[in-house]
Amino acid sequence: MSTTIAAEPAESAVTGVSLYRAIWRWHFFAGLLIIPFLLNLAITGSLYLFKDEINDTVFAYRYHVQPSGEPLSPQKIADVAAAAVPGSVASSYKDPAGLDRSAIVTVSTDAGASLVFVNPYDGKVLDTVGTTDEFNYVIKRIHSLALFGDITNKLIEITGGFAMVLVVTGIYLWWPRRQAGGVVTVRSTPARRIFWRDLHAVTGAFAGILIFFMAITGMPWSGYWGANVNAWLTSHDLGYPAQLWDAVPKSQKVTDDILPKTGWIVEKAPVPLSEIAEAQSKKPIGLNRAVEIARGLGMAPGFDLAIPGSETGVYTAAVYPDDLAKERTLHIDQYSGKPLIDLSFGQYPFLGQAIEWGINVHQGQEFGRVNQLLMLATCLAVILSCVTGIVMWWKRRPAGRIGVPPMPPRRSVYLGLWTIVLAFAVAFPMSGLTILLMIAVDQMVIRFVPPLKRAFA
Fold this sequence. Notes:
Blueprint: H1 2-49, H2 51-57, H3 60-63, H4 74-84, E1 89-94, E2 103-109, E3 112-118, E4 125-130, H5 135-144, H6 150-174, H7 193-218, H8 225-235, E5 250-254, H9 255-258, E6 270-272, H10 286-296, E7 304-306, E8 314-319, E9 328-333, E10 339-344, H11 350-362, H12 368-396, H13 414-427, H14 429-446, H15 450-456
Antiparallel strand pairs: 1-2, 1-7, 2-3, 3-4, 5-6, 7-8, 8-9, 9-10
């Protein structure tokens, strides 16, 4: 009897140590792989949170104007913009968001599209910049690594999944186990590794929920997961109400093709067609009338309006303001002026609203300055976690080796963890499959190749 009682705590201790080491090893590998990408996300994300403030200060010369008299008509402004870029045609018009704001016209040529900023009072061209060269657009593309191609964009999707893994495994490693510090306090001084370990753990523990939130709300923009989730939601009537399109003819274009900015839920929604029969008896209503209709139907100031590029095209007005209740997409027949589809945020199904809300909070837009500062604090916590993780690893690594945490004494503990990873791979395929590959390399390659085993020890 006494032998059995003595063995049970020892058995439990070995299992506990094995689980701790296995999770520590996962946490280490995940961090090692994605720290550069996390730093990029946090730094560029911090900048993008304040895109409006950047526009209003650094680029105020093209966004701000002095009101003076009656503004020019939208069509006149579009003509001025097209004349500023020889050989171009206006493809969209952004209505000024306020009396002191410029009008922005997107003009297109065979070489690409440009944004032309026009003073709506005197018609002066304030600036012209390629759509892909605009500062905040570049920051956003660096943020997602889409600027460097589809493959690098997939790395950001993997990073998002790994970030969630780091939070969950980090909380497990932080969880109090009768230690004297490192739970809510930081011990020692920067000269010692324990200081960096505690700073890393406490930062991750307190910011973990927000970091997890940032990771999961960033996933809708990912190339594989985001596109497939959007398609799945649409096919199950959980994204936008697809039945609104049942009564109108649809083109091969989607909203994302014709507007410089779209909401995530409707970016792949089809663009309807104007009634071609109307073309035989009516002339196009023109840009001025289309803007009047959009304003008359209550579109919030600052809306973008796509200009038809063919005889079957439509005018599409869309606005995605900080106040989600005013988010709206409106398609207008270019001959009759009739609204073909009028879709507002309130018409999205619950799941569509939840995703759009998460995206809005992710971008620091949902509840004003507090939202911006909260997301900025999260980005700074990510940067601090990366820096402390690097310093902590550097201080504990053996000379000339990577210093991977040791293998668990009982490797059977991986069976349960593999099950969890498989479930994760179903939810987030790119990230989950990468983790499976990481574990397979760890267990089947590093473990049995002596030079690698020594280097990673």
